[in-house]
Amino acid sequence: MDILEIIGKKRDKKVLTRDEIHYFIKNYVSGEIKDYQASALLMAIYLNGMNNQEISDLTDEMKNSGDTLDLSDIPGIKVDKHSTGGVGDKVSLVLGPMIASLGAKLAKMSGRGLGHTGGTLDKLESIPGCRINLTEEEFKHQVREIGISIIGQNEELDPADKKLYALRDVTGTVASIPLIASSIMSKKLASGSDAILLDVKYGSGAFMKNLKDAKKLAVTMVNIGKALNKDVKAEVTDMDQPLGMAVGNNLEVKEVIETLHGRGPKDLTELCIDSGSIMLVQAKIFYSKEEAKKAIIENVKNGKAFEKFVEFIKWQGGDVEYLYHPERFDVASRIIPVYSNKAGYVSRIDALTIGEGSMRLGGGRETLDDVIDMSAGIILNKKIGDKVEKGELLATLYTNKENTEEIERNVLGAFKINKNFKKKVLEKELIE
Known about the structure:
- By secondary structure, this protein is an alpha/beta fold.
- It folds into 3 domains: 3-49, Up-down Bundle (Transferase, Pyrimidine Nucleoside Phosphorylase, Chain A, domain 3); 78-324, Pyrimidine Nucleoside Phosphorylase, Chain A, domain 2 (3-Layer(aba) Sandwich); 331-418, Aldehyde Oxidoreductase, domain 3 (Alpha-Beta Complex), CATH 3.90.1170.30.
- Helices cover 46% and strands 16% of the residues.
- The chain contains 17 helices and 13 strands.
- The strands form 3 sheets. The protein has a 6-stranded mixed sheet with strand order 3-2-1-4-5-13, sandwiched between helices. A 4-stranded antiparallel sheet has the order 6-9-11-7, with helices on both faces.
- It is globular.
């Protein structure tokens, strides 16, 4: 077998066999196949696509390119969740305790934020003392004992994806649905869970900019799950405005705490309850979403969901005093109001602009080596559909940086305000 033959075959729009995909992944990870050869194959895949069998074979070979996590010694069905990324997306920290408080086992490996998207690990590390680098045995023991652990990704898992992702980033082949789907799913499957819920976002603050492409990616990933005998479901949800009101690590954790007390923003609360109900059915704890939703709402009301969050953070070394009195910790030195320059209704909030604004205030990183200011970020004071008077507060910026005038102008410009407003019904769909 020869890499030139494989490249030529995909260049000519032919289907690759499992053996050919195995040969490529094995020899690329080992270094036998060079980056320039892999780049040619990636571009051929980008231009000509792959069928479902090729995509599932590629995913499985990537998954098996390094270590895989065996969770079989943890009783019950282990569930996992993945979001394709967005602005203000702190869902895992809300729904994880919600479902764990009802007996689900959430075993989740997460990543860090980059660019305008926030990472779950960064949010956890904004809690003083919270550890995300648990050993495999610590991770499994915690899931076994309290039903939830969220840690950093094992560096030995899926080395093929690490190499291919870095190469795609510099060869113009990122936006390929077969390559995106295999990248996401190979990592999730290597992490060992029995059932996976995917949240595929679309809109200005998401990687997939339109509903059609988001649905295509969701269907592709669900099909991978079917081919590899895993219970995979996907929600398609919008990211045309930030999720919730808070963007930025410390600010988002405070919103997580409020949401688990039943005082969170409507959009975040509803998404977490809906996603959590799907995962509880996947875990076979409830037979219907309706039953599961009622149970989640009850555990928010009676405090059990928040208690599970406290237990989870305590097990990972976090300062639980922070969870009871978050207002005492990590407040930015500069708090800057952004006021509306016109009256009307908010018709759009550009999530990408808000996410980039938070990053530039110090709340995110442009490169993986950047150090995050955990106190920095943006609180929205208005959402789409809200009435606004001239001079009314639209958003509040939190930062320790000076010279933020340009960021302030950009945040103001992210809010589109019209005299009249007709609410657009955003589509949401469950693919299973």
